[in-house]
Amino acid sequence: MPPLTFSTTPGAHLHAGFASALVGALAVALSLAATGAEAVTRWAGFAIGLAFLGAGGAFLLLGGRQTICVDPARRAVVLRMESRLGAKEQVVPFATIARVSVGELGDDDGGSTSCFVELRLHDGATVALFLGPWEGRSDRAVALERARRVAGAAGLPGP
């Protein structure tokens, strides 16, 4: 059976980085150009602008590609995170996975939630898959389908 591979597109990080940096630069410029405003207001706008610039820089510097590979030949789930600073790989052998489920982050009381696939390990630890800039991250049905595909490819109990 061939490996089941999922990958993000780095464009989401680039768009968020450029938008954040643009908003930050605009806030800094407006706060420096404000002549009639009180000093506290100018400094607050300047600080917010710097925060947005910093977030934009982090998105541009650290944003990259995430790849999840369920490899039956290797009998492992391989998570690879690539950024402009390097790459990091985490290997989770099938033998250490107790079950595959769907997890949620966020507020159930009217706020936004983010759904992801969760690998529950025999030692009680969890490994989150599809957490971050993935398409359909707010849709539980998408996360459930991904969990079923991962569990099926790995031959593991699923949702």
Structural account:
The protein has 159 residues and is an alpha+beta fold. The protein has two domains: 4-8 and 66-154; 12-62. It is 39% helix and 31% strand. It contains three helices and seven strands. It has helices spanning 11-33, 39-62, 140-154; strands spanning 4-7, 65-71, 76-83, 86-93, 97-106, 113-121, 126-129. The strands form two sheets. It has a four-stranded antiparallel beta sheet. It has a three-stranded antiparallel beta sheet with strand order 5-6-7, with helices on one face. Strand 6 (113-121) and strand 7 (126-129) form a beta hairpin. Helix 1 packs antiparallel against helix 2 (39-62). The longest helix is centred in the first third of the chain and has 24 residues, at 39-62. The radius of gyration is 20 Å and the shape is elongated.
